[in-house]
Specification:
By secondary structure, the chain is mostly beta strands. Helices cover 4% and strands 52% of the residues. It is built from 1 helix and 28 strands. A hairpin with a 4-residue loop joins strand 25 and strand 26.
Length: 348
């Protein structure tokens, strides 16, 4: 269910879209239908839906905006062991990267236009893959349970994983291919993001209801921020000095000031759940739209939130946080990624 106020704002926003010719592409992983949707922005029209492996959870776009990788996590009975490679402009799947058996790939982040880092929960590792060769080029053990999400910094030469089962974050030297150490975060460490130009690592601890902040050089903890509501994903906005955290239990999103490390605003979602379809946290949180994925567009103008229990995205002005639109997706949207390029399947 969408409130009248949100609907009215959406109508106004859609009317304004006709005045701009600027387009980009948003990719959304649909967990419950083994697909990734390509949406033309700013309107949010689905221009293509591509088949992936079982239960795709996350998606990432290469720095040049041309390619995407989708992590096919699988389910309880069938652990995933592949990544789907997508040509964004052509709106085509161009390959499948096979990972070690039982990998359960989840978090994915490109290191450059060819290589990417992928968490492999099932084998307690971070994998480095070559998209050109469509192959794994390095396996780095982290020895932590449920290495879920990943953040990486080319400037630091480091990657960081958030490990749900161990309540930690692991730092990895990408050049040497070795683990540097584990940082104690909190129970259910899941979301992760680099802030302040990569000098800080923010980790959301869903079971502890906290956010941990670490120095990315010394690996020392700088702060522990209480945040009730099952904090599950983190997105940094360095230009405005903010960090966004989705809160599925509260059906809300917290906006945290990076300097003061305090909640400066909460966005309460007014999107009703779809109880006709079963989703991952639907039984636990039946009355929530279950906001999980959160993404700031690459041009810094728009914030997107994926509501996995409502099968829609909501979008907001990144500066004012005023609502812009509700965008239908496939079943159980989660991971998202943004490309500055438009889909042009015929090369027109």
């Amino acid at each position: 269910m969408i409130t009248r106020r949100f609907a009215a704002v959406c109508v106004l926003w859609c009317a304004l879209l006709a005045q701009t010719g600027n387009t980009a592409t948003l990719l959304v992983a649909n967990k419950s239908e083994a697909s990734v949707s390509l949406l033309q922005l700013p309107a949010g029209n689905v221009v293509a839906t591509l088949a992936t492996g079982l239960a795709p959870h996350e998606v990432a776009v290469s720095p040049d905006g041309r390619r995407a990788l989708v992590s096919n996590y699988g389910d309880r009975d069938q652990p995933g062991a592949t990544l789907t490679l997508v040509d964004i402009e052509a709106a085509q799947v161009t390959g499948t990267i096979h990972l070690p058996e039982g990998s359960r790939p989840h978090g994915v982040e490109w290191l450059d236009n060819r290589r990417a880092a992928v968490t492999a929960e099932g084998i307690l590792s971070l994998l480095l893959v070559d998209a050109d060769e469509q192959a794994v080029i390095r396996r780095i053990p982290v020895y932590q349970n449920v290495a879920h999400m990943v953040a990486a910094s080319a400037a630091l030469g480091r990657a960081f994983t958030a490990n749900i089962g161990s309540g930690t974050s692991t730092a990895i030297d990408l050049e040497a291919g070795v683990k540097l150490g584990d940082m104690a975060a909190g129970d259910g460490s899941e979301g992760i993001a680099l802030a302040r130009g990569g000098s800080e690592l923010w980790v959301s601890n869903r079971s502890a209801d906290t956010i941990s902040v670490f120095d990315t050089t010394s690996l020392e903890k700088q702060a522990e921020i209480p945040l009730e509501g099952f904090p599950i994903r983190v997105e940094a906005d360095d230009a405005r000095g903010r960090v966004f955290v989705t809160l599925p239990r509260a059906d809300a999103m917290a906006v945290i000031d990076v300097k003061t490390r305090t909640v400066m605003r909460r966005v309460e979602f007014d999107i009703g759940p779809d109880r006709t379809r079963r989703t991952l946290f639907g039984d636990m949180l039946p009355d929530s739209s279950i906001p999980i994925g959160v993404l700031l567009s690459g041009d810094g103008t728009t914030l997107f939130v994926a509501h996995s229990n409502a099968h829609v995205l909501s979008s907001y002005d990144a500066t004012t946080l005023e609502p812009r639109a509700i965008i239908p997706t496939g079943l159980e949207p989660d991971g998202m990624a943004w490309s500055p390029l438009d889909v042009n399947p015929r090369g027109n």
